Amino acid sequence: MTTRRRLTVVQAFGLVAGVTTSAVLISGWLISKLEPERFGHVGEGLWWAIATITTVGYGDLVPATAAGRMIGAALMLVGIAALAFVTATMATVILGEVRAEEELIEREESEILSLLSELNERLRRLEQAAGVNPPVRRP
Questions:
Q1: All domains of the chain, ordered by start, with CATH?
Q2: pLDDT at position 136, please?
């Protein structure tokens, strides 16, 4: 049986940052090469890519060709996926912490019940040895 190694929070955010940065850089460069009349230099392409991936979309720079719009659509999807991934990662971290705390409480409850059972048994033996009749428990 193979075991899957879980991502740490730092690794997860690093992955999102790496994918997002790569998508912005590649898209910014590509759009400046595909539509040089609208995106005069790579800096404008990067500005558009950042506005697009963050779903801000100022509209000051907009692709006109089908290829440019496809790049924009892919970039928007990467931005939405990155946000969803970050949200899911944070939810997983929070739920993991809650579950760990619940497990700790369950272990402590179990230990307390075990100690109470042991004390109850000791008390019963002491009462028997002393010839004391234990009180009748009423429900």
A1: 10-130 (1.10.287.70)
A2: 62
